[in-house]
User: Which sequence fits this backbone?
Protein backbone atom coordinates (compact mmCIF):
# COMPACT_ATOMS: atom_id res chain seq x y z
CA UNK A 1 0.00 0.00 0.00
CA UNK A 2 1.01 3.64 -0.30
CA UNK A 3 2.86 6.03 1.96
CA UNK A 4 3.27 9.48 0.47
CA UNK A 5 2.38 7.94 -2.89
CA UNK A 6 5.11 5.26 -2.73
CA UNK A 7 4.26 1.55 -2.59
CA UNK A 8 5.55 -0.33 0.46
CA UNK A 9 5.29 -3.69 2.11
CA UNK A 10 5.70 -3.92 5.87
CA UNK A 11 8.71 -6.26 5.74
CA UNK A 12 11.33 -7.26 3.19
CA UNK A 13 14.78 -8.85 2.96
CA UNK A 14 17.74 -7.04 1.43
CA UNK A 15 21.49 -7.85 1.57
CA UNK A 16 21.13 -10.27 4.49
CA UNK A 17 19.12 -7.71 6.48
CA UNK A 18 15.43 -7.75 7.37
CA UNK A 19 13.84 -4.34 6.77
CA UNK A 20 10.76 -3.24 8.71
CA UNK A 21 8.74 -0.06 9.15
CA UNK A 22 9.16 0.83 12.83
CA UNK A 23 5.51 1.08 13.94
CA UNK A 24 6.35 2.52 17.36
CA UNK A 25 7.33 5.75 15.56
CA UNK A 26 4.18 6.08 13.44
CA UNK A 27 2.34 8.29 12.64
CA UNK A 28 4.87 11.01 13.49
CA UNK A 29 7.98 9.50 11.91
CA UNK A 30 8.35 7.04 9.05
CA UNK A 31 11.48 5.06 9.85
CA UNK A 32 12.73 1.92 8.12
CA UNK A 33 14.65 -0.18 10.58
CA UNK A 34 17.27 -2.89 9.98
CA UNK A 35 17.03 -6.19 11.82
CA UNK A 36 20.35 -8.06 11.65
CA UNK A 37 20.07 -10.85 14.20
CA UNK A 38 17.39 -13.18 15.50
CA UNK A 39 17.54 -11.23 18.77
CA UNK A 40 16.69 -8.06 16.81
CA UNK A 41 13.56 -9.76 15.44
CA UNK A 42 12.50 -10.98 18.90
CA UNK A 43 12.94 -7.45 20.30
CA UNK A 44 11.05 -5.92 17.37
CA UNK A 45 8.11 -8.26 18.08
CA UNK A 46 8.21 -7.70 21.86
CA UNK A 47 8.52 -3.91 21.57
CA UNK A 48 5.80 -3.90 18.87
CA UNK A 49 7.98 -2.26 16.23
CA UNK A 50 6.22 -4.91 14.18
CA UNK A 51 2.79 -6.00 15.34
CA UNK A 52 -0.45 -7.50 14.09
CA UNK A 53 -0.84 -11.28 13.91
CA UNK A 54 0.21 -11.96 10.27
CA UNK A 55 3.14 -9.54 10.38
CA UNK A 56 4.65 -10.98 13.56
CA UNK A 57 4.36 -14.43 11.97
CA UNK A 58 6.29 -13.24 8.90
CA UNK A 59 8.87 -11.49 11.10
CA UNK A 60 9.43 -14.72 13.03
CA UNK A 61 10.01 -16.57 9.73
CA UNK A 62 12.69 -14.03 8.77
CA UNK A 63 14.03 -14.28 12.33
CA UNK A 64 14.89 -17.91 11.58
CA UNK A 65 16.65 -16.85 8.37
CA UNK A 66 18.77 -14.43 10.43
CA UNK A 67 19.41 -17.17 13.00
CA UNK A 68 20.90 -19.39 10.25
CA UNK A 69 23.00 -16.51 8.91
CA UNK A 70 24.35 -15.90 12.41
CA UNK A 71 25.06 -19.47 13.37
CA UNK A 72 24.24 -22.34 11.03
CA UNK A 73 23.67 -24.86 13.79
CA UNK A 74 20.51 -26.89 14.49
CA UNK A 75 20.48 -26.44 18.27
CA UNK A 76 20.84 -22.65 17.85
CA UNK A 77 17.99 -22.78 15.34
CA UNK A 78 15.76 -24.72 17.74
CA UNK A 79 16.48 -22.26 20.55
CA UNK A 80 15.73 -19.34 18.19
CA UNK A 81 12.43 -20.98 17.22
CA UNK A 82 11.45 -21.38 20.87
CA UNK A 83 12.33 -17.77 21.72
CA UNK A 84 10.43 -16.45 18.70
CA UNK A 85 7.29 -18.41 19.61
CA UNK A 86 7.48 -17.02 23.15
CA UNK A 87 7.98 -13.40 22.10
CA UNK A 88 4.21 -12.68 22.21
CA UNK A 89 1.61 -15.14 23.49
CA UNK A 90 -1.81 -14.47 21.94
CA UNK A 91 -1.38 -14.34 18.15
CA UNK A 92 -1.22 -17.92 16.91
CA UNK A 93 0.54 -16.83 13.69
CA UNK A 94 3.88 -16.80 15.50
CA UNK A 95 3.72 -20.51 16.27
CA UNK A 96 2.10 -21.28 12.92
CA UNK A 97 4.91 -19.63 11.00
CA UNK A 98 7.78 -20.99 13.13
CA UNK A 99 6.35 -24.54 12.96
CA UNK A 100 5.97 -24.23 9.18
CA UNK A 101 9.59 -23.06 8.82
CA UNK A 102 11.00 -25.72 11.18
CA UNK A 103 9.16 -28.49 9.34
CA UNK A 104 11.06 -27.48 6.18
CA UNK A 105 14.39 -26.91 7.91
CA UNK A 106 15.02 -29.62 10.47
CA UNK A 107 15.88 -32.44 8.08
CA UNK A 108 17.96 -30.29 5.73
CA UNK A 109 21.79 -30.19 5.34
CA UNK A 110 23.56 -27.06 6.51
CA UNK A 111 24.77 -26.15 2.98
CA UNK A 112 21.17 -25.91 1.69
CA UNK A 113 19.35 -24.63 4.77
CA UNK A 114 19.74 -20.88 4.18
CA UNK A 115 18.27 -20.97 0.67
CA UNK A 116 15.34 -23.10 1.82
CA UNK A 117 14.66 -20.85 4.83
CA UNK A 118 14.73 -17.71 2.73
CA UNK A 119 12.45 -19.22 0.10
CA UNK A 120 9.91 -20.30 2.73
CA UNK A 121 9.96 -16.95 4.58
CA UNK A 122 9.32 -15.19 1.26
CA UNK A 123 6.50 -17.61 0.46
CA UNK A 124 4.89 -16.94 3.86
CA UNK A 125 4.84 -13.24 2.92
CA UNK A 126 3.58 -13.81 -0.64
CA UNK A 127 0.87 -16.16 0.63
CA UNK A 128 -0.26 -13.61 3.21
CA UNK A 129 -0.58 -10.98 0.48
CA UNK A 130 -2.66 -13.35 -1.69
CA UNK A 131 -4.85 -14.31 1.27
CA UNK A 132 -5.40 -10.72 2.38
CA UNK A 133 -6.29 -9.72 -1.19
CA UNK A 134 -8.88 -12.52 -1.34
CA UNK A 135 -10.25 -11.51 2.07
CA UNK A 136 -10.76 -8.09 0.50
CA UNK A 137 -12.58 -9.45 -2.53
CA UNK A 138 -14.81 -11.64 -0.35
CA UNK A 139 -15.57 -8.86 2.14
CA UNK A 140 -16.24 -6.43 -0.71
CA UNK A 141 -19.43 -8.37 -1.49
CA UNK A 142 -20.84 -7.52 1.97
CA UNK A 143 -20.04 -3.83 1.54
CA UNK A 144 -21.56 -3.85 -1.97
CA UNK A 145 -24.77 -5.39 -0.61
CA UNK A 146 -25.09 -2.68 2.04
CA UNK A 147 -24.35 0.02 -0.53
CA UNK A 148 -27.02 -1.35 -2.89
CA UNK A 149 -29.57 -1.36 -0.07
CA UNK A 150 -28.77 2.08 1.41
CA UNK A 151 -27.54 3.91 -1.67
CA UNK A 152 -25.31 6.23 0.37
CA UNK A 153 -21.87 6.16 2.03
CA UNK A 154 -21.28 2.91 3.91
CA UNK A 155 -20.13 3.55 7.50
CA UNK A 156 -17.81 0.87 8.83
CA UNK A 157 -16.46 0.65 12.36
CA UNK A 158 -13.11 -1.01 13.00
CA UNK A 159 -11.03 -1.65 16.10
CA UNK A 160 -7.25 -1.60 16.59
CA UNK A 161 -5.18 -1.94 13.43
CA UNK A 162 -6.00 -4.90 11.25
CA UNK A 163 -4.75 -2.90 8.32
CA UNK A 164 -1.89 -3.45 5.90
CA UNK A 165 0.52 -2.45 8.66
CA UNK A 166 -0.60 -5.54 10.61
CA UNK A 167 0.00 -7.82 7.61
CA UNK A 168 2.39 -7.67 4.66
CA UNK A 169 -0.01 -5.79 2.40
CA UNK A 170 -3.78 -5.00 2.12
CA UNK A 171 -4.61 -5.89 5.76
CA UNK A 172 -7.40 -8.16 6.90
CA UNK A 173 -10.24 -5.95 8.18
CA UNK A 174 -9.17 -3.07 5.93
CA UNK A 175 -8.79 -5.11 2.75
CA UNK A 176 -12.55 -5.12 1.93
CA UNK A 177 -12.56 -1.37 2.65
CA UNK A 178 -9.63 -0.71 0.29
CA UNK A 179 -11.26 -2.85 -2.39
CA UNK A 180 -14.59 -1.02 -2.00
CA UNK A 181 -12.83 2.37 -2.12
CA UNK A 182 -10.92 1.42 -5.28
CA UNK A 183 -14.18 0.27 -6.86
CA UNK A 184 -15.71 3.65 -6.24
CA UNK A 185 -18.12 2.66 -3.44
CA UNK A 186 -18.28 5.56 -0.98
CA UNK A 187 -17.03 4.32 2.40
CA UNK A 188 -16.32 6.06 5.67
CA UNK A 189 -14.51 4.38 8.55
CA UNK A 190 -15.10 4.98 12.26
CA UNK A 191 -11.66 4.28 13.72
CA UNK A 192 -11.65 3.19 17.36
CA UNK A 193 -8.73 4.95 19.02
CA UNK A 194 -7.84 1.62 20.74
CA UNK A 195 -6.33 2.50 24.06
CA UNK A 196 -3.84 2.01 25.51
CA UNK A 197 -1.45 1.86 22.52
CA UNK A 198 -3.78 3.68 20.14
CA UNK A 199 -3.19 1.43 17.14
CA UNK A 200 -6.46 2.70 15.66
CA UNK A 201 -5.58 6.39 15.93
CA UNK A 202 -1.87 6.01 15.21
CA UNK A 203 -1.88 3.32 12.54
CA UNK A 204 -5.35 2.67 11.03
CA UNK A 205 -6.21 6.31 10.56
CA UNK A 206 -2.68 6.96 9.23
CA UNK A 207 -2.86 4.22 6.61
CA UNK A 208 -6.43 5.13 5.58
CA UNK A 209 -5.34 8.76 5.15
CA UNK A 210 -2.43 7.66 2.95
CA UNK A 211 -4.90 5.71 0.78
CA UNK A 212 -7.35 8.65 0.86
CA UNK A 213 -10.14 6.67 2.53
CA UNK A 214 -12.46 8.90 4.56
CA UNK A 215 -12.15 8.14 8.29
CA UNK A 216 -12.88 9.60 11.70
CA UNK A 217 -11.10 8.65 14.93
CA UNK A 218 -13.43 8.05 17.86
CA UNK A 219 -12.76 7.33 21.53
CA UNK A 220 -13.19 3.65 22.25
CA UNK A 221 -16.45 4.19 24.09
CA UNK A 222 -18.16 6.09 21.28
CA UNK A 223 -19.15 3.14 19.08
CA UNK A 224 -22.26 2.32 21.12
CA UNK A 225 -24.00 5.66 20.66
CA UNK A 226 -23.08 5.79 16.97
CA UNK A 227 -24.70 2.38 16.53
CA UNK A 228 -27.84 3.55 18.37
CA UNK A 229 -27.98 6.56 16.06
CA UNK A 230 -27.79 4.39 12.94
CA UNK A 231 -24.38 5.76 12.02
CA UNK A 232 -22.66 2.38 11.77
CA UNK A 233 -23.67 0.01 8.95
CA UNK A 234 -21.24 -2.76 9.79
CA UNK A 235 -18.20 -3.60 11.91
CA UNK A 236 -15.13 -5.37 10.58
CA UNK A 237 -12.28 -6.34 12.91
CA UNK A 238 -9.23 -8.58 12.70
CA UNK A 239 -8.21 -11.43 14.97
CA UNK A 240 -5.09 -12.79 16.62
CA UNK A 241 -6.47 -16.26 17.16
CA UNK A 242 -9.73 -17.77 15.93
CA UNK A 243 -10.77 -21.05 17.48
CA UNK A 244 -12.31 -23.85 15.43
CA UNK A 245 -15.49 -23.08 17.41
CA UNK A 246 -15.62 -19.61 15.79
CA UNK A 247 -14.69 -17.74 18.99
CA UNK A 248 -12.31 -14.89 18.24
CA UNK A 249 -9.49 -13.38 20.30
CA UNK A 250 -8.70 -9.83 19.22
CA UNK A 251 -7.53 -6.53 20.67
CA UNK A 252 -9.03 -5.65 24.04
CA UNK A 253 -12.39 -3.93 23.57
CA UNK A 254 -13.47 -5.96 20.54
CA UNK A 255 -15.91 -7.95 22.69
CA UNK A 256 -17.70 -4.81 23.90
CA UNK A 257 -18.11 -3.61 20.31
CA UNK A 258 -19.58 -6.98 19.33
CA UNK A 259 -22.07 -6.75 22.22
CA UNK A 260 -23.12 -3.26 21.17
CA UNK A 261 -23.43 -4.36 17.52
CA UNK A 262 -25.57 -7.34 18.57
CA UNK A 263 -27.85 -5.11 20.63
CA UNK A 264 -28.31 -2.77 17.66
CA UNK A 265 -28.67 -5.45 14.98
CA UNK A 266 -25.53 -4.35 13.17
CA UNK A 267 -23.50 -6.97 11.28
CA UNK A 268 -20.22 -7.73 13.02
CA UNK A 269 -17.63 -9.42 10.78
CA UNK A 270 -14.17 -10.77 11.59
CA UNK A 271 -11.59 -10.91 8.78
CA UNK A 272 -8.79 -13.47 8.95
CA UNK A 273 -6.33 -15.50 6.93
CA UNK A 274 -6.35 -19.23 7.79
CA UNK A 275 -2.93 -18.80 9.44
CA UNK A 276 -4.85 -17.26 12.36
CA UNK A 277 -6.98 -20.33 13.04
CA UNK A 278 -6.09 -22.38 16.11
CA UNK A 279 -7.41 -25.87 15.38
CA UNK A 280 -6.29 -27.25 18.77
CA UNK A 281 -7.75 -25.16 21.59
CA UNK A 282 -11.48 -25.79 22.05
CA UNK A 283 -12.29 -23.61 25.06
CA UNK A 284 -11.67 -19.89 24.65
CA UNK A 285 -10.67 -19.64 28.32
CA UNK A 286 -7.52 -21.58 27.38
CA UNK A 287 -6.31 -18.86 24.97
CA UNK A 288 -3.23 -17.21 26.47
CA UNK A 289 -4.11 -13.53 26.94
CA UNK A 290 -1.14 -11.21 26.85
CA UNK A 291 -0.76 -8.83 29.77
CA UNK A 292 1.54 -5.97 28.88
CA UNK A 293 3.44 -3.44 30.96
CA UNK A 294 1.06 -1.13 32.79
CA UNK A 295 3.24 1.79 31.70
CA UNK A 296 1.39 1.57 28.37
CA UNK A 297 -1.66 2.79 30.32
CA UNK A 298 -0.08 5.21 32.74
CA UNK A 299 2.01 7.01 30.09
CA UNK A 300 1.20 8.42 26.69
CA UNK A 301 3.41 9.47 23.79
CA UNK A 302 2.85 12.30 21.33
CA UNK A 303 4.39 15.38 19.76
CA UNK A 304 5.31 18.31 22.00
CA UNK A 305 5.04 21.95 20.94
CA UNK A 306 8.43 21.66 19.17
CA UNK A 307 7.24 18.60 17.22
CA UNK A 308 9.51 16.30 19.26
CA UNK A 309 8.14 12.94 20.36
CA UNK A 310 7.58 13.07 24.11
CA UNK A 311 6.29 10.54 26.63
CA UNK A 312 4.35 11.82 29.62
CA UNK A 313 2.70 10.25 32.67
CA UNK A 314 -1.09 10.69 32.78
CA UNK A 315 -2.06 8.76 35.93
CA UNK A 316 -1.27 9.36 39.59
CA UNK A 317 2.03 7.68 40.51
CA UNK A 318 0.33 5.76 43.32
CA UNK A 319 -2.45 4.25 41.16
CA UNK A 320 -2.33 0.64 40.08
CA UNK A 321 -3.25 -0.20 36.52
CA UNK A 322 -3.81 -3.42 34.60
CA UNK A 323 -3.15 -3.89 30.91
CA UNK A 324 -4.76 -6.94 29.34
CA UNK A 325 -4.07 -6.73 25.61
CA UNK A 326 -6.77 -9.02 24.16
CA UNK A 327 -10.29 -10.28 24.81
CA UNK A 328 -12.45 -12.97 23.28
CA UNK A 329 -15.65 -12.43 21.33
CA UNK A 330 -17.87 -15.52 21.45
CA UNK A 331 -18.97 -16.86 18.06
CA UNK A 332 -22.64 -16.09 18.76
CA UNK A 333 -21.96 -12.37 18.35
CA UNK A 334 -20.16 -12.75 15.01
CA UNK A 335 -22.14 -12.41 11.76
CA UNK A 336 -19.48 -14.11 9.67
CA UNK A 337 -15.78 -14.89 9.27
CA UNK A 338 -14.29 -13.35 6.12
CA UNK A 339 -11.44 -15.61 5.02
CA UNK A 340 -9.33 -16.06 1.90
CA UNK A 341 -11.63 -18.91 0.87
CA UNK A 342 -14.93 -17.14 1.35
CA UNK A 343 -17.24 -16.01 4.13
CA UNK A 344 -18.46 -18.59 6.62
CA UNK A 345 -20.51 -18.84 9.77
CA UNK A 346 -18.45 -18.42 12.95
CA UNK A 347 -18.76 -22.05 13.99
CA UNK A 348 -16.94 -25.35 13.62
CA UNK A 349 -19.36 -26.33 10.84
CA UNK A 350 -18.76 -23.07 9.00
CA UNK A 351 -14.98 -23.31 9.26
CA UNK A 352 -14.92 -27.01 8.40
CA UNK A 353 -16.88 -26.36 5.20
CA UNK A 354 -14.23 -23.92 4.00
CA UNK A 355 -11.13 -25.64 5.41
CA UNK A 356 -11.40 -29.39 5.17
O1 LIG B 1 -1.28 -5.89 19.87
P1 LIG B 1 -1.35 -5.78 18.37
O2 LIG B 1 -1.27 -4.39 17.88
O3 LIG B 1 -0.37 -6.71 17.69
O4 LIG B 1 -2.81 -6.32 18.06
C1 LIG B 1 -3.28 -6.36 16.76
C2 LIG B 1 -4.68 -6.74 16.65
O5 LIG B 1 -5.37 -6.98 17.61
C3 LIG B 1 -5.19 -6.92 15.28
O6 LIG B 1 -6.56 -6.64 15.24
C4 LIG B 1 -4.97 -8.37 14.89
O7 LIG B 1 -3.62 -8.72 14.98
C5 LIG B 1 -5.49 -8.69 13.58
S1 LIG B 1 -4.24 -8.36 12.41
C6 LIG B 1 -4.60 -8.29 10.87
Assistant:
Amino acid sequence: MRIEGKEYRTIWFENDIVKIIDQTKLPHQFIIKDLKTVKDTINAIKMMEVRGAPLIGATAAYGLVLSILENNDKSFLKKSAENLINSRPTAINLKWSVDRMMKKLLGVNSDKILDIALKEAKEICEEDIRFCKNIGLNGLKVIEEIYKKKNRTVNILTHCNAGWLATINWGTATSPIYHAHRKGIPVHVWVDETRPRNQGANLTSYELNEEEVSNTIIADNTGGILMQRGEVDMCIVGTDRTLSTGDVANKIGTYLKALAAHDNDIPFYVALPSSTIDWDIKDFKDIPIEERNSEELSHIEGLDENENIKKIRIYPKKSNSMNLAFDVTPAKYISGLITEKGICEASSNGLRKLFK
Summary: The chain has a mean pLDDT of 97. The radius of gyration is 20 Å. The first strand starts at residue 2 and ends at 3.
